[in-house]
Write a structure and sequence with these properties.
Layout: E1 2-7, H1 16-20, H2 26-33, E2 37-43, E3 51-58, H3 61-75, E4 83-88
Antiparallel strand pairs: 1-3, 1-4, 2-3
Length: 89
Amino acid sequence: MIKLHFFDWDSFYLNIENELNINSDIVDFLIEHVPYIELEATDNQFDLENNWIFWFSSKNEKKAIKAIYDIIFSRINPDSSMHFSITLE
């Protein structure tokens, strides 16, 4: 399982799409741009709106992690206070 966690502990609300400058939902965006991934679940820590966790599955999870990382890293605003982590769990 791929765990993708976006967070900004210094804010009350996190708008991932705004931080990445995309016009669609982050899940739809990733599924469109990363082959063979499927959303399994969403979650957040402590029931707060300043972080979101997305769980994905893929036929080739290592390749999908690299593709997800590359696309997010390339789109994140340099002045953004949002951070992300992506791990295989």
